[in-house]
Amino acid sequence: MQPATAKWYDRREAVFIEFCIEDSKDVQVKFDKTKLDFSCVGGTDNIKHHNEVDLFESIDPNESKHKRTDRSVFCCLRKAEPGKSWPRLTKEKTKLNWLSVDFNNWKDWEDDSDEDLSSFDRFSEMMNNMGGEDDLPDVDGADDEESADSDDEKMPDLE
């Protein structure tokens, strides 16, 4: 058994962790007030993964959720004390080789306006609208190679 590679980022209302395991099966996520326990079987080699994290601060286990996709398992940990910044995910300052910061989603929200407050609400709504695990929507839209970025400019047709 080995730990799954994971990325995390902090928001005003919640902390998000993405366990990067493709084709995961037997996913189990247990939210405790001060701990997260994750396990699954994943990849083409069916490797057993297990991660146990003693969290930096307390979370609300009843409001925390997870979602499995073909590429990862995404967890949303609702903070027990919203508005309190987490400088790291873990209670201990020890560097975990399987854990990194998700800089693509990281924001210094302490200096921001309240516009980001609804990110947890949007995630919650998405989770509530989902059916069973077999009919989960594909949220990995960024992986569609043919989709153009919103900031890409269209070149005029020259004839």
UniProtKB/TrEMBL annotation:
Enzyme class: isomerase
Residues covered by the CS domain: 1-90
Acidic residues bias: start-end ranges: 132-152
UniProt-annotated location(s): Cytoplasm
Family designation: Belongs to the p23/wos2 family.
PANTHER family xrefs: PROSTAGLANDIN E SYNTHASE 3, TELOMERASE-BINDING PROTEIN P23 HSP90 CO-CHAPERONE
Full protein name: Prostaglandin E synthase 3
Organism: Cyprinus carpio carpio
Upper taxonomic lineage: Eukaryota, Metazoa, Chordata, Craniata, Vertebrata
